[in-house]
Amino acid sequence: MIKMFTNSMLALVLLAFFSNCNNSNYQSTQSGMKYKMVKDADGRTVKMDDFLTLNMLYKATKNDSVLFNTFTNPQPLNFKFQPTLFNGAINDGLLMMSAGDSAHFVVKASSVYKDQLPAFLTADDELEYVIKMIKLSSAEEQQREAAAAQAAQLDKEAGLINKYIADNNLKVEKTESGLYYIIDKPGTGGFPKPGQRVEVHYTGTLLDGSKFDSSKDRDQSFKFPLGQGRVIKGWDEGIPKFQKGGSGKLIIPSPLGYGNRAQGPKIPANSTLVFDIELLDFQ
């Protein structure tokens, strides 16, 4: 009979495994960090500014209390590796690792928390980090992967968007980035430029017509600085298509919206967004 592990049971199994590691097998770096490579795979090692995907557990060794653990999470950590991360305490160790490696690092609590030690730790207490390096990418590789993923997602959504356009008999313009826009009322007050503060009314829906937000429902316009990354990319690109006093529609594929991040229950991951826009003013 197959037994299903809960997250709690899996965490206990992992903790038992990590606790049974023999400290006598550790080596030390010049900085004083102790380390042990559990699995040493081939391939290039981590460099500063690489993008790392990894699972991490760390615990206080004096009582084996787990302080952080992603091994039981649905998604691993993904971040750009920079000198300031982890206060530099385990950076020596991470720089030794390749994709596929597993390692243990042990450092003084004071090297991690500096002068902000939690009440349950002293400066000489040790923390043990357990790292499974899943993937590493250079900045250039990350950019290529992101561009490829965006292109693939745009292609995937294009069929649904084209059906929406045909079903609603819309005449659209399309930008190179994949943004679709429709000008219903041209307006006469000129076009806003990056850096200017714009004021809009909007209603946002998904392709199926379900509404997720509306400034009109609140009877309160929305103001923001254009081209400063304060809103989704589709807005920063699309709002300048309207003149003051103009109105129309933006159809925004998910790479120009919220991408693969759900925004609460009303906007699932990888959602195409449709906005009815009125450009009220800018200055």
Strand-helix topology:
Elements: H1 7-19, E1 27-28, E2 34-39, E3 51-60, E4 65-69, E5 77-80, H2 91-94, E6 102-108, H3 109-113, E7 126-137, H4 139-167, E8 173-174, E9 180-185, E10 197-206, E11 211-214, H5 215-218, E12 222-225, H6 233-238, E13 247-252, E14 273-282
Antiparallel strand pairs: 1-2, 2-6, 3-4, 3-5, 3-7, 6-7, 8-9, 9-13, 10-11, 10-12, 10-14, 13-14
Task: Give a description of the structure.
- The chain has 283 residues and is of the alpha+beta class.
- Helix content is 22%, strand content 31%.
- The chain contains 6 helices and 14 strands.
- It has helices at 7-19, 91-94, 109-113, 139-167, 215-218, 233-238; strands spanning 27-28, 34-39, 51-60, 65-69, 77-80, 102-108, 126-137, 173-174, 180-185, 197-206, 211-214, 222-225, 247-252, 273-282.
- The strands form 2 sheets. Strands 1, 2, 3, 4, 5, 6 and 7 form a 7-stranded antiparallel sheet that branches. Strands 8, 9, 10, 11, 12, 13 and 14 form a 7-stranded antiparallel sheet that branches.
- A hairpin with a 4-residue loop joins strand 3 (51-60) and strand 4.
- It is elongated and about 75 Å long.
- Mean pLDDT is 91; it is low at 1-6, 8-13 and 15-23.
